[in-house]
Design brief:
2 helices; mainly alpha; flat; two-stranded parallel sheet
């Protein structure tokens, strides 16, 4: 999980799950707690799916916006 996808690609990370921002990678403090929970739950789920996915090259996994 990273918020700077171009850097992750440059250094050779094989599975990349984009996050939201540097100070708040898995949430947005300006949203209600319920919305933050849904956002975090989804991103962590994508990250777990990424770990379970067979890949042969660098892959950036899509997340809901």
């Amino acid at each position: 999980m990273c918020n700077l996808v171009p850097i992750a690609l440059t250094v050779g990370a094989n599975r990349i799950v984009p996050t939201i921002s540097i100070p708040y990678p898995l949430g947005d403090p300006n949203t209600p707690p319920e919305e933050q929970w849904k956002l975090r739950y989804h991103r962590v789920g994508v990250a777990l799916d990424a770990l379970a996915t067979d890949i042969s090259e660098q892959t950036v996994f899509r997340v809901k916006v």
